[in-house]
Amino acid sequence: MADTNAKRAENSSSHRQISLQKIREASSALEALYLKTPLVYSATFSRLSGAQVYLKLENLQETGSFKIRGATCKIAFSRETIGPHGVVAASAGNHAQGVALAAQRAGFPATIVMPQWASISKQEATKAYGGKVVLAGNDMSDAIGMALQLEKEGKTFIHPYDDPDIIRGQGTVGLEIFQDLPDPDFIIVPIGGGGLFSGIAEVARQLRPSVKMVGVQATACPSVREALRHGKPVQVEAQKSIADGISVKQLGAIPFEIIRACAHDVVLVDEGEISAAILMLLERRRVLAEGSGAASLAALLKNPLSVKPGSKVVLVVSGGNVDTPLVDRVIRQGLFRSGRILRFAVRLEDTPGALADLLKLVAFHSANVLDIYHDRGGKDLPLHLTRVELEVETRGAEHKAQLMKALEKAGHAVSTQ
Q1: At how many degrees (to 10) do helices 164-180 and 67-76 cross?
Q2: Residue 136's closest CA among 180, 68, 79, 90?
Q3: Beta strand residue intervals within 67-196, DSSP E
Q4: Which helix (H) or strand (E) segment is 49 a member of?
Q5: What's the CA dihedral at 78, 192, 131, 135 to 10 degrees?
Q6: CA-based end-to-end distance of the chain
Q7: In order of start, what are the domains of the chain with their CATH numbers?
Q8: Which DSSP category does 213 fall into?
Q9: Helix 164-180 crosses helix 195-207 at what angle (to 10 degrees)?
């Protein structure tokens, strides 16, 4: 019972540190150290959803995500306790870069422990912001373990989300939302460890209690859903996800209490929905968002929220740190899943004009040929036939279905990939 009461007292103290006043103090003191990101209206997403949709573009921060806010706040308000050995953090990406840059600006050395599989581009970005990168282990648990060992050597550990000062810093996103749009009806926020959602929720709770705070997680790592189901943070098994920034196996203790009190709903989105949202943001708004950042749009378009027509909806695009080699793969997968690219094969008589007739049929139905492969040597092909594979661009699923129907009507046995 004593432990329970102590934990409640600790949580109460933490909540006081994350009050609206404390978040405003952080904003006033630190606003020159990060970008006040724009809140932009999207006519396209408004039309698709029936709501008035605004994008909070945290992908435009210097480090490519909101994490610079929390790291800056933590380091600024801990200056007197940070020793000459500086700070240490564990991260595979966004938190690493945020801590490295915040520490560099404050004049402290930063050591960032990253798992062995951390992408080269994120390692190099962290180094460019002044961080010393240490690779350790095969998962984030190993990296955190190493970071905690380094803490014992005199470094100050910067937690990515379960810390009042970190949450205060992320809460400045909420202040900016309400400065630009005082009366939102929904704010949709990706949730990993819960720091960003918690900071925005604390602002919303005090400035506009009627606003519906909606969290988003990848189906591959539903740690919030499981925490709410069990009544406490629990560790979940995580599958590989394009939204690696929110693939956090266990929700933070402080964020859990805020989410339990403030979340209107928590929506799960799958890999296909996230990929489609990345592609839509890129094509319709020229916004490059990572999987975690696009999750808020994926949740809105999934439409489980009963958003009334005309409601004002804010989507927090939390980051844009997509590895360059991954961008092409994401775009192609998104195009395939949305029916915008169709790859199919047919068998043709190996006679003059047969291929031309096929291409004429494809052109008549306004599909654009991207690639073609002509195979005469397949061991399963009769001598009088040839196998042709085509990759074509279509306008979407309906156009794809029309083309398939036309091919079959013309007598082609079509196999798709």
Answers
A1: 130
A2: 90
A3: 87-90, 110-114, 131-135, 156-157, 186-190
A4: helix 43-49
A5: 130
A6: 60
A7: 2-66+163-334 (3.40.50.1100), 68-157 (3.40.50.1100), 339-416 (3.30.70.260)
A8: E
A9: 50
**218 token code pair:** 């990848």
Residues of the chain with pLDDT below 50 are 1-12
The pLDDT of residue 6 is 38
pLDDT above 90: percentage of residues in the chain: 73
Contacts of 153 (CB under 8 A, 6+ apart): 85
The whole-number pLDDT of residue 238 equals 85
CA dist., res. 394 & res. 396, Å (int): 5
User: Any idea how long the chain is?
Assistant: 417
pLDDT of residue 127: 95
Specify the pTM.
0.85
The pLDDT, as a whole number, for residue 137 is: 82
Short-list 37, 39, 41, 42, CA closest to 280: 42
Backbone angles phi, psi at 82, to 5 degrees: -85, 125
pLDDT for residue 11: 46
Helix, strand and coil content of the chain, in percent to the nearest 5, comes to: 50, 20, 30
